[in-house]
Structures are given as C-alpha cells and as structure tokens.
Amino acid sequence: MGIIDSRADHGITLQTKDSSYHMAVDGYGYLRHLYYGKRLEPEDLFYLYRNYDRGFSGNPRPAGNDRTYSLDAVCQEFSTSGVGDYRIPALRVMNADGSRIADLRYVSHEIRDGKYALPGLPAVRDTDGDTQTLEVVLRDEPSKLTVRLLYGVFEKKNMITRAVIYENTGDKPIVLEKAGSCCLELPFGNWDLLHFHGRHNRERAPERVPVLHGIQTIGSGRGMSSHQHNPFVILCDRLATEDHGDCYGLMYLYSGSFRAEIEGEPYGSVRAVMSPGDESFRWTLQPGAQFAAPEVLMSRADGLTKLSQQYHKAVRENICRGEYSLAHRPVLINSWEAAYFDISAERILKLAGQAASLGIELFVLDDGWFRGRKDDNAGLGDWEYDPEKLPEGLDHLIAGIRETGMLFGIWVEPEMVNEDSDLYRAHPDWALAAPGRKPARGRNQLVLDLSRVDVQDYIIQFMTNLLTKYDISYIKWDFNRSVADVYSHLLPAEQQGEVAHRGILGLYRVLETLTARFPKVLFEGCAGGGGRFDAGMMYYTPQIWGSDDTDPIERLTIQKGTSFGYPLSMVGAHVSIAPNHQTGRTTPISTRAAVAMTGAFGYELDLSLITAEEQAEIRRQVQEYREDEQLIQRGLYYRLGEDTEGMDAFSWLLVSEEQDQALLTVVATATHGNAPLIHVRFKGLDPAALYELREDDLVRSGAALMNAGYTLPQLTGDYPAFRLHLKRVQNGAGKEE
Length: 737
Ligand code: DGJ
Fold this sequence. Notes:
Layout: E1 3-6, E2 11-15, E3 19-25, E4 31-38, E5 91-94, E6 105-113, E7 131-140, E8 145-154, E9 159-168, E10 174-179, E11 182-186, E12 191-199, E13 202-210, E14 214-220, E15 232-237, E16 246-252, E17 258-264, E18 270-276, E19 283-285, E20 290-302, H1 304-319, E21 332-334, H2 336-339, H3 345-357, E22 362-365, H4 394-403, E23 407-412, E24 416-417, H5 422-426, E25 446-447, H6 453-469, E26 474-477, H7 499-517, E27 522-525, H8 535-538, E28 543-545, H9 552-563, E29 571-576, H10 589-596, E30 600-604, H11 612-634, E31 636-639, H12 641-644, E32 649-655, E33 661-668, E34 679-680, E35 690-693, E36 698-701, H13 702-708, E37 710-711, E38 721-730
Parallel strand pairs: 21-22, 21-30, 22-23, 23-26, 26-27, 27-28, 28-29, 29-30
Antiparallel strand pairs: 1-2, 2-3, 3-4, 5-10, 6-7, 7-8, 8-9, 9-20, 10-19, 11-18, 12-13, 12-15, 14-17, 15-16, 16-20, 17-18, 24-25, 31-32, 32-33, 33-38, 34-37, 35-36, 35-38
Helix pairs in contact: 6-7, 9-10
Bound molecules: (2R,3S,4R,5S)-2-(hydroxymethyl)piperidine-3,4,5-triol.
Residues 336, 366-367, 411, 478, 480, 526, 528-529, 545, 548 line the site of (2R,3S,4R,5S)-2-(hydroxymethyl)piperidine-3,4,5-triol.
C-alpha cells in the first residue's frame, strides 16, 4: 500500500519500495515533517524531536506559554513566512492589508488512487498503475489562503512527486510573491549538495560542495532553466559514494526561471525549497482563483548510482511521452556544423546522399533555410523557405532527401523574432519589451511574448502549416537567448510579475498542442545547446541537444554531469569534424563516436572533408549503434569514475536489466609513457553467470569481473577510447544461453 494513514497519531506515511516519508500534524495544528529515509513501517516518530527553549526563536500563539515550541526549529512539510520561522520560506504572500504573513495550519487530507492532475503543466505520469495521491489542505485563516499540498507516490519506482495548488478562498486579492513547489527537510546528519552548473558549451558540470550554514541558491533568472544551473539537485550524505550513503534528488519539471534554495540551519537540519520564477515573480490571486506550482520529482536511494538509475527509468517511462519515448531513434545527420548558414539545395543534397550511403537514417536541415536568414541577424519569424537558397522549393529538397531513403527533419526557433523580419514589422508588440525602453538583444534577436494567447496561436498555426504541408519527421526546437525586458503589452502594471511564468505556461500549451497533433514527429529540444535541458521540456521532447560543444573530451564532463539525473536516451550527441569547431582539438573518430554513442546518436559534419577510411568507420559505427541501441537507451548506467579517478580517464558501464549484456566504455583524456594500466571493476552483472568479452576473446564470471575486475590493454595515442561488449554465455544456473 503506497500511502498509510495512521489516524492515531495523525501521521501519514508515503511508502515506496525502498523508502518511507512520514509527516504528522502536531498538537498546535502544524504539519510536521518527521522522516524521509530507508523504508520502515509507520510509527509515531515525534520522539525524534525534543523541544527546548531556544532563546530568540519565535513561539507561535497556539503554543501559549510553551517557550520550547518554535516554528523556527521544527521541520515542516511546507515552510511559510512572517510567523516566526526565519529559515527559507516556501511561500511568501502580500495580503490585501499589506501584511506579509501566512500562518498555515492543517485543515484536512485525502488519499486517492491514481495521480493528481496538474492542468497546463508537465507532470510525471502514472504508467505503472500503482500510483496514489495524498492531498493535504493547509489554510491561513485570516486571509483564507488555502494551500493544497499534493504528493504522488510511485511505489515501484521509489519516486514521490510534489506540487502545490494555491487557492484564494477569501474575498480579497492575495499576491503570491513566492509560490514554492516543495520543501524538503533533512533533520539530522552532514550533507553535501551536488548540483550541475555551467555556461554555453559547458553545461551541467557536476559540483559537490558541503551544505554550509546559510543559504545556497541554485537557480536561473534567465526565463529558461539555463546553461548556468540545472533544475536538478542532489543532497547526499557527506560520506556517500556511488554505491553507498543516503542520497536524495529533487528534479524540477519546469523550464523557466527557478530557485532551488538549500539552507544549513543553526540546529543542524537542512531545508531545501524549490520554487518557480525569480525575485520578480508576483502572482495576484483574485478571490476564487488558483495557482498551480510546478511539479518536483523527489527520490531517495543508497548511493548515487542507484539514485541516477531510478531517475533514468522515471524520466524515460513516466515523463517522456509519445511514440519515440522508448522506440528506436533514427541516427541523424545535422547540417549545422557541416554548412552553418551557407546552405544551397545542391550542397544539402550532396551531404544527404553521402550520409544515406553510410546508413544514416534522418537528415536534419538546421538553421539558415528560411527567408532572410543569411546570418543570425535576420529572418526569425518568417518561416517560409528562402527562394534564393532553395530555388526549387523546400518540397523539392525534401523529395530529393527522401529519395535517398532518409527521413527529413528541420530546425525552427518559434519563440523568437528578429527585428528585421516581416513578423516583427507587422507585430512589434508581440516581442517582450517595456514601453519607452529599447529591449536588450541577444544574438540580435528578441523574445516573443508567449504569455499572449495570440502569439501562442500564431506559433501553433505556422508549425501546423509547416508540418502539414511538408513531409517532416523530426523538429529541432531551438531557443537561443536568455529572456530580458519581461513586459507584456496585454497585462496591467500589477500583473507584470506574472509574465515570465505565463510565458512558460504558453510554451507548454503550444508544445502540448503540437505534440498531440503530430504524434509521429520526433521533437528534439534545444536552447543554444543544452540551455533548457530540464524535465519540463522532456515531457514534450524525448530528446534534447546536450550541448553545442561537440568536442568528445569536453562532452565527457557534460554527459557525466547529465547522467546523474537524466537518461542517455534524452541526450542528443553527435560526432563532428576534427579539429573540433569549439575547441580546436583533434581526436580520433572512434573516440568521438564512443562518446556520442552514450546518447541519442548522430553526426554533424561535412562528409566531404573526411577520408574514405573514416567514412567506412562511420558505416560500422551506425551499424554498431543500431545493435547496441536498446542497451544504450534502456540499460542500467554505472559511472565507474571512482575506479579511474586520478588516471586521466572517464569510464562508464551499461548493463541490461536482464543482466545478459553489458558495454564498458573508457576514454583516456591524456596518455603517459610507461603508465600504469587502467583497471575497473564491473558492477551489476550476475555473479554466477559467465560472460564473453567480445573485444578480448575471453570468458569470465560475473563474480570475477565485479570483484577482481578487469585490466585494460595499454591505451596509446591521442585521446584513445576503449569499448568492451559483454555477452552472457552461461547463466547462473549453469545453462548455456
Ligand atoms: C544553437 C544550436 O544549439 C545549434 O545546434 C544550432 O542549431 C544553432 N543554434 C543554429 O542557430
């Protein structure tokens, strides 16, 4: 049973396969967080928390003369502000009288089968049929602000979702200045924060730091989840490793500005709060109105590897949707690094012909194909083909590509406009800009105001035309600048703080409409590389371009960081030319492929610039990827970094759930004379089974490979990669496979 209601102590326990989450209402009517950890049967856990007089901490009114009770010191399910808890609030309001107080007390709760709905927002789906919902109602009586805390319990997946519905059940407006999605308290222990930071061309680099006293904020005010910080954080025991130790993840299903705040508080507990928007967020709740805060996917595991594997499965099976979420993805070639804006029908058809002869399945025509798009200064908004570049039309080009046997895909950037475009000339007020101010440009473009329904409808319309008129199987949906000048011409001054979030809701409406209307089209997300690589977008696009940095050595860190939360099937990854366009580094094509194959695989280079041997190698790679694809997309992923640390190498392993196949990859980032050989220990194999090591002509037991390990042959040359396929030839019962 997923949710257990122990009426005796007013406790509620959320049970998943391996974890328990326990809350209870205390004698003063506050909803207390009591436990999240290894699974245990429900019992009264208030004994863990002893009250004593803590000096300056505020004592709430209902505590009467009891100075030992302070909201500032207890762990709460949902922290609020203005009532004597001085730690991070999940909620900040401005009431009609100007006060900023919300005293949230328990009102009621309800347990239901199935998953709650969160209309208009991406949400984890109940695909296993074992999900239950807990809804707890809290209320601030004076203002009548009602807060519905929603929990979805995914028992088999070890996942708990969190979301909040704010409702004004009073008769005066209430302004939400902060409308958090969840508050997680870890009452005891020493914790590290693992987060994923970066910049354009260097997204999601992992950084593990101790949680200190004070508040650490991971977030974005860029109107997109951003290259700089990913909306996924892990709190882990300071001693946690890949295999051991308490690890908790908070993954936000949200693509706009966000805040993940982590506070180490004076009495040793840690509080984490996730909320949408930045300091400019203001949402006016008129009487009767509701606001839904986006969903957070929370999980707990022993060790980082297990935590990642739980997230991989949940993202793949419960967040991604549509035909392509679990199916074969066509190996693609993208025109960007091959031609940039220098597109002609002749050039594209030549590249397509070469790609098809190597077994590549999908041709993607990137930026530069539409009217006025000679460079990145003009054209965005005018989504018709450029007759100068494609004199015989887009139809003709697509027919030529389809004749090669390949599918056709195309790049768009629907949320943007160049001032030098017919769209902007016709609708200057569709771009975000405040009256009397010249808006900041990014890549010489402006951002459309997606809080407006007419702008959303325009995007839906032109995309529908494009996808109906042409034979298009794939869309690359780009977003190439951060948002600024957040102002909508349709909203009054007091609602301008809503524009950014309304824009994200608008984007979700557009994507929901288009993906439902065109279920056979594969949508790949993109934002100047991986600037919107978040679980919100993953609900609509089952793959996202990982980074504009295609250098395999740079990608090692990017893809490693990404692997903590997101499955390999999500990460668009391509083999590009050497020397690499971003770093100037030269690497072997085998290494480029070994790294790109740890993702949704493709190519992005001018095939005329490589040798016949390299072309033959590409043909082999495409074949090999097809053979390994299921293992890559669905296998259990193990980072083996702890083995190769200090050896200038990255190593990772994929093992099928059935334990009958595995694939080890090791990439050396430097080679040394007379160097020690790299040694790794396998994980996740069946100890009693025998495995054939394809590239080494050996058969060894899972036990030997996991305990004694495996010593690699000497790796030489620049940036060598080593791949080893394992196949079970005899199972644990001694039977031949
Ligand atoms: C940024 C993307 O990440 C690139 O792959 C490419 O599509 C360019 N935009 C095109 O402008």
